[in-house]
Amino acid sequence: MARKLLPWLSTPLILVAFVVLWDVFVRVNDIDELVLPRPLTVWHSLVEVVQKPATWEHARITGTETVGGFLIALACGVAVGVVLGKVRWMERGLRPLIVASQVVPKVALVPLFVIWFGFGMTSKVIMSAMLAFFPIMLNVQLGVRSVEAGQRDVMRSLDASRWQTFKHLELKSTMPYAFAGMEVGIVFAIIGTIVGEYLGGNEGLGYLVVRTLNDLDAPALFAVIILLSALGLLLYFIVNGLKRFFIPWHESVYSQLDVNR
Fold first, then answer.
1. Domain count of the chain?
2. Whole-number Å distance between alpha carbons of 142 and 138
3. At what angle do helices 2-29 and 39-50 cross, to 10 degrees?
4. Domain ranges, residue 242
5. Is 73 within a domain?
6. For the chain (length 261 residues), average pLDDT per consecutive 10?
7. pTM
8. Crossing angle (nearest 10°) for helices 205-214 and 53-86
């Protein structure tokens, strides 16, 4: 029983230990609240921030921009990943262009997006989609290529139709890779949204970070950062939880391995 409860208790225990060490560090070194506030001060500020209706509106905007960018990246990443996974010559030709588009510092593109699309949600959605696209596309491409020629030969020997081969072999082989890319992509999506709001926004939690920073309100700044972390975790666990519906056979394998250990 204790062994089964340990994974569930480890995260709260680590979090409590971190908060205690944080408080002790601030007290011992007598650090000014403007530099590093105590955890209790941050908690009171978090309660105040959460009680404001404007905070939830900012959170809604950030969540909408993140989900919108992620869905665009998912659609484009799956389409491009499937094509590049099946057409080798196209992949070799487009690989330098795709890599070049990823090594460009995305922060440098924010002013251009603001000029082209304004300070509204569009520029943030595009930034979010750009960051989330590459891991999804790459993992889908790897998933398509994970299907070996011998497996296709087996399906043909069983007189499987093209649809049956796609449904029972190609789709099931690719989906675990796609979800792995989605888990990384949703994290990158919220990073892209926050960067866009931070540098060129007038609404959203990223903008709220800038406003609390300009007010030199360190406890409120930490509170907003906690809200951003909570939003990121929520979106990540939603994507992770979808695996139980779309690839339950894959999830059960890993659950069984964890139990055996």
1. 1
2. 6
3. 110
4. 67-149+176-260
5. yes
6. 56 81 85 84 89 90 93 92 83 79 74 78 87 90 76 65 64 83 92 85 85 85 91 91 77 47 51
7. 0.83
8. 130
